Amino acid sequence: MSNLPITHMTLYKHGVGFFERRAQFHGQQVALTFRVEDMNDVLKSLTAIDWGEGQVLGVEYATPQTLEERLAGCSIRLSDYHSLMDLLVSLRGRRIRLTLEGDQTESGLLVGLDQPPERQPLATALVSLLIDEHDQVHTFQLGVIHAVDILDERGAGDLRFFLQTSLSQEMHRTVTVRLSAGDHDLTVSYVAPAPTWRVSYRLVAEEDRALLQGWGIFDNRLEEDLTEISLSLVAGMPISFIYDLYTPFTPERPEIKEEGRVAARPPSFGRAKSMAAADALPATRALSAEAPVAMESLRMSADMMEESVSIATQGEDLGELFQYEIQTPVTVGRGQSAMVPIVSTRLEPRKDLIYNGRKRAEHPVATLRLTNESGLTLEKGPVTVLERGNYVGEAILPFTPEGAELMVPYAVELGVKVREESGQSKQTHSLQISGAFLRIETWDIRYRQYRLTNEMSDAVTVLVEHPRIARYDLFDTPKPEERTDDEYRFEVEVPARGEYDFRVQERRLTHRREDLQKQSYRGLKRYLDTGLIDRRTHDQVTELLRLWEQMEESKTLVGQLDEKRQKVYAEQQQIQGNLKALGASQKETALRDRYVGQLESSETDLKALKRQENDTNREVERLEQAIQDHLADLA
User: Fold this and answer.
1) Phi/psi at 25 (nearest 5 deg)?
2) Phi, psi (5° rounding) for residue 95?
């Protein structure tokens, strides 16, 4: 037996399938054919089990080689465009028989093929043949040759090998399961690449109920028909990868030369808010009563759809995955695709108009909200929404575990328009004096104004989704109806043919510290007027600012006195230098007396500067003490 039929197939969402083949037979081997690109996954996962008395002895497959490697010993090489000419060139020296026009035949050893002159038809090429009986070389134009019989067994074998290798080498590989002699009940299972399965849904919404029906879609890309197989469709994301087990790999090894008759020692290494919790959903809102009603004979109802489709699917929770077990056998031809029903469940709908300007600007979106009470995990896929028998829109159903909420936004409500304006501001919250610093708490305020305009004849309720900002809290804003991980939802009633303004405000308290000495009298007056500080604190800080100003003035004066003293020192040094240069003449004696008088006067100035500097330093010390006392009084 050369083939095991597929009996079960499990398809996943990440591009692989798990296949099981099983059959009872008598023999010692089973050959399976796989595409080259499948081999790594097959070798990674292939498992063979004999359920009877036999044994699995091993699995064999041809070592992969390139086309050139396989054809290394083949004497025949044909190109893609001149195969007959290439064949005749390759058969040179071999015995052949040519069939010519009029069924004339000539046999002999092929001498060769002469190419035609440039721009001449290929049919004018000359084939030279050594005729056995006459030892003569005859030539024939390529165009009159109707058939070539290869009389040389080696040449004919090489041609067949070349053609078989060209056909299968680059596309398929054969894997042979070797078995013990006798009867077998053999199962072979493996993982191989496969197109991902998809799902599409139909949601039929009525007044107080809805039917959700899901269909799994898959493709048979195998090179065989699938007949009466069992099928499983798995939702989730198992880890999968390609690991090259098929291509032979010989790593390069370092060359270690013997050194002093001591081998190199080998190295050793040491061991190495989903939706946020929200209040229960409000009472169910009725679906629109204004939806057009189809003709009674054509109306598609939930009852009709539920009764017309037989659902034979069993769900199985596999932890990180969820599996749909199709209970009825499935038949799909080679190269065909199919749809199988996987879910049909009744749910209670709630219809909302939800506005989110980051997802859909200007208009809210009509949304059906349901809870997945199907007992199954719902895979992501498109959903077509029917209301009162009419198509009303489409959406993407997200991956939804059992018990989770379903949001199906299916149509834009053009009768309601929303405009947004946003801004931010800062507002001082409190002041606190700590030592020589002023600690200021400021509200960082952000706001967004929503203006909703309803052009319809009935009042509408819109859920406005507003983004939640980390570390910001709502204030002076109505309590949100719901919260998600990323948004607040505010319920806004908009009158018929009217407008409604709605403002959302959020704030965050920030802190900064400023030197008390750098405050201004005007700033203190503003803090007093706004009630951030009382009169006593205002007066104490004002007095502190006055003391700091006086202290700065005194320190400036000390600096100025030091500059004057340095200037006097410089003048004294100049006078003393002049005195040393004077001689004993009468004129120089008079000049010396004058210099001496200047020195005495400068000494008097230095003493006066010293007294003033001491007085000023004492004033600085007094002011510093006064400042410390005031700061202690403020604490």
Assistant:
1) -165, 175
2) -85, 130
Helix axes 586-634, 535-581, angle to 10 degrees: 160
Can you tell me the distance from the alpha carbon of 13 to that of 24, in angstroms, rounded to the nearest whole number?
Answer: 32
Percentage of the chain lying above the pLDDT 90 cut: 33
Same-domain pairing of 288 and 393: yes
Pairing label, strands 47-50, 482-483: unpaired
Residue 467 lies in a domain: yes
Residue 315 pLDDT:
61
Phi, psi of 531 (to 5 degrees): 80, 10
Place of tokens 């900064």: 512
Q: How far apart are CA 188 and CA 50, in angstroms?
A: 9
Closest CA to 357 of 483, 474, 487: 487
Q: Which of 435, 443, 425 is nearest to 512 (CA)?
A: 443
Owning domain of residue 124:
67-168
What's 109's domain CATH number?
2.30.30.100
Residues 599 and 563 occupy one common structural domain: yes
Closest CA to 561 of 496, 498, 493, 607: 607
Q: What is the rounded CA–CA span in Å between residue 529 and residue 242? A: 73
DSSP code, position 281: P
Question: What is the DSSP secondary-structure string of 3-56?
Answer: ---EEEEEE-SSSEEEEEEEEEEESSEEEEEEEGGGHHHHHHH-EEEE-SS--E
3-class secondary-structure state, position 627: helix
Instruction: Quote the DSSP letter at residue 184.
Output: E
How far apart, in whole angstroms, are the C-alpha atoms of residue 586 and residue 584?
A: 7
Query: Reduced to 3 states, what is the DSSP secondary structure of residue 472?
Result: coil
Asked if residue 220 lies in contact with residue 337, where contact means CB atoms within 8 angstroms, the answer is yes
Supply φ then ψ for residue 345, to 5 degrees: -145, 150
pLDDT tens, position by position, 295-352: 343 445 556 555 555 555 666 665 556 788 888 889 999 889 998 888 888 998 889 9
CB 22 within 8 A of CB 6: no
User: Would you list the DSSP string of 478-490?
Assistant: PPPSEE-SSEEEE
Helices (H), 277-381: 302-308
Looking at the structure, do residues 361 and 499 belong to the same domain, yes or no?
no
Is 128:89 a contact under the CB 8 Å cutoff? no
Residue of 171, 252, 228 whose CA lies nearest to 8: 228
Ordered mean pLDDT values, 10 residues apiece, the chain (635 residues): 80 89 91 88 91 90 69 76 84 89 87 85 86 82 89 86 68 86 92 91 87 91 89 78 68 59 34 37 42 41 56 59 84 90 89 91 91 88 88 89 89 93 92 87 94 94 93 94 91 94 95 89 87 88 90 92 91 86 81 85 90 91 89 81
Residues 408, 448 within the same domain? no
Contact between 464 and 535 (Cβ < 8 Å): no
Among the listed residues 571, 602, 577, the one whose alpha carbon sits nearest the alpha carbon of residue 592: 577
- How many structural domains comprise the chain? 4
Edge-to-edge, what's the strand order for the sheet holding 350-355?
Answer: 405-412, 365-371, 350-355, 460-467, 487-494, 482-483
Sheet (strand 322-332) strand order: 47-50, 183-193, 16-26, 6-11, 226-235, 322-332, 313-317
Question: Is residue 269 domain-resident?
Answer: no
What stretch of H or E contains 314? strand 313-317
Q: Is residue 266 part of a domain?
A: no
Phi-psi region of 375 (alpha: psi -120 to 50; beta: other; left: phi over 0): left
Structure tokens at 408: 């199906």
The one-character DSSP state at 262 is B
The verdict on 213 and 354 lying in the same domain is yes
